[in-house]
Amino acid sequence: MTPLAGPILTAAEMRAAEDAVIAAGTTVESLMDRAGQHIAAAVRRLAGSNPILILCGPGNNGGDGYVAARLLHKAGLKVRVAALGDPKTDPARAAKARWPGPVEPFATAQPAPILIDALFGTGLTRGLDAPTTSSPAKAGAQSERTIEGATPIAPKLLELAQSANLRIAIDLPSGVTTDDGRVISPIPNYDVTLALGAAKPSHLLQPAASHCGTVRILDIGVPITSRAHVLAKPILSAPGPDAHKYTRGMVAIVAGTMPGAARLASIAAMRAGAGYVLLLADDQGGPDALVHKPFSAEAIAERRIDALLIGPGLGRNADAEDKLDATLATDRPLVIDGDALHLLKGARLSQLATRNAPAILTPHAGEFDALFGTDAASKVERARAAAMQSGATIVFKGADTVIASPDGDVRVATGASPWLSTAGTGDVLAGTIAAMLAAGLSPLEAAAAGVWLHAEAARRCGPAFIADDLAQALSAARASQ
Question: What 3-state DSSP class applies to 279?
Fold first, then answer.
């Protein structure tokens, strides 16, 4: 049982990984036994000696539940099993046959202090009480649901969960999709989710992620490869003995109609480790270490600039458009945020892919929709498509920030502090990412490091902070490396 980390697999990718292991000679029953053993071991650590109720569905997720129930019973724990009906796959039937106790009807199950949800795991596409038909599941896959009896599943599940002291979901909470974070039925909030084999997108994407509680990965012996990974703590080196302000990276920030936003970004860049920060503005505010210069084509053409940030407080008037056009015409690495994203449509967006230097775009949901349109795809797939279209690395911000590079690599951040929902925190993130880009990290690495530092600074601030506090806390976040 390991923390939420590593590769992220969609339902189809997980099924393919399992199929590959089965094709190499491992049986579905063996995989189910491994899953059940790891589930039982985790539950024993979490549940202590408390009575346990395991809810088993008709597919292989339910089969995992039967295996875990048998092993927990064998270990001397008080375990009950309630099921929606008979299993619909051969491995699940075999697992049920080895369970030595009775199987209660789900509809009449009484609560227990520990609730284990093994109803529906990876692959659910319909709500728990949506009409459906049944069909045998392929090996290793989630079977379609067959609901025996008229008792609605979702209300009963909520009732049992409300009465439990500890709620544990197997693989995913029943009632969420696997790939896009949707909640398709009313579901409880779980305390722990035991993910089988690898993280799934809905362990990280909202609103499903908010129902998962603490996610832990159980290694069931399936080799995992993926181009999507959970955002990890970056490895950032400290300045060496020969370091000076230019080797640590020079960041230039273009100010506009709201210079305070650009100052916040500037302070963030300095606190994140940039050696030299130049604010291109007419005002002289900010710390004494911040260098000021009026904006001009010559100023942004400075060869020592390692990253150029435009957007925080830029405005959307003709002057802002002129500044953006001049910035796009440079060959400096760019971070484009805020107002500049609203001005980036059409020919300007197309221009990004033809530049000789990388760019990072940092849209929130509204900015993303305005720039790339809306569709029903997952946040991961939308970010990946936007990166490929623009040729830029995309930081699709939110409680479930997704970072995507044009080559298809993706990083997804775990839940960020809800206190980040205050003015100016996006400007701080943009400045942090610019500092990472100026330090010489690749665009994907720079964006990932910036997002991680931003979240760590928020964690250190605690509740009810303001963006100024967040920028200041970046020094301590950077020192944690």
Answer: strand
Kindly report the number of other CB atoms within 10 A of residue 346's CB atom: 8
Instruction: Report pLDDT for 30.
Output: 96
Q: Label the pairing between strands 214-218 and 2-3.
A: antiparallel
- Pairing between strand 192-196 and 166-170? parallel
Q: What is the pLDDT of residue 150?
A: 53
Where along the chain do its domains lie? 2-228, 250-479
The span from the CA of 471 to the CA of 267, in Å, is 6
Range list of β-strands (E), 372-445: 393-396, 402-404, 410-412
What is the distance of C-alpha 132 from the center of its chain?
31
Q: Tell me the backbone φ, ψ of residue 9, rounded to 5 degrees.
A: -120, 140
* 245 neighbors 33 (Cβ within 8 angstroms): no
Q: Which residues neighbour 177 within 8 Å (Cβ) at sequence distance 6 or greater?
A: 124, 125, 184, 202, 208
Residue ranges in the chain whose pLDDT is less than 70: 131-151
315 strand-pairing partners: none
CATH number for the domain running over 2-228: 3.40.50.10260
In the CATH scheme, what is the code of domain 250-479? 3.40.1190.20
Q: Please choose, from the candidates 194, 203, 187, 200, the residue with its C-alpha nearest in 3D space to the C-alpha of residue 154.
A: 187
- The whole-angstrom separation of Cα 97 and Cα 464 is 54
Q: How far apart are the first and last CA of the chain?
A: 25
Distances (CA, A) of 201 to 7, 132, 145, 337, 426: 10, 25, 22, 26, 24
Handedness of CA 154, 157, 163, 168 (dihedral sign): negative
Dihedral sign, CA of 32, 215, 479, 238?
positive
* Residue at 74: amino acid letter: K
For tokens 């159980």, name the residue: 218
**Residue bearing tokens 């407080």:** 313
Q: Are 380 and 228 in contact (CB under 8 A)?
A: yes
Q: Do domains 2-228 and 250-479 have the same CATH topology?
A: no
- Token digits of residue 174: 């029943």
- 3-state class of 106 per DSSP? helix
pLDDT of residue 121: 87
β-strands 393-396, 359-361: how paired? parallel
**Three-state secondary structure along 156-173?**
HHHHHHHHCCEEEEECCC
| Rounded Cα distance, 395 and 166, in Å | 35
Angle CA(25)–CA(28)–CA(29) in degrees, nearest 5?
110
Q: Which of 122, 137, 144, 131 is closest to 208 using CA atoms?
A: 122
- Cis geometry, peptide bond prior to residue 207 (ω within 30 degrees of 0): yes
Cα dihedral across residues 140, 145, 151, 153: positive or negative:
positive
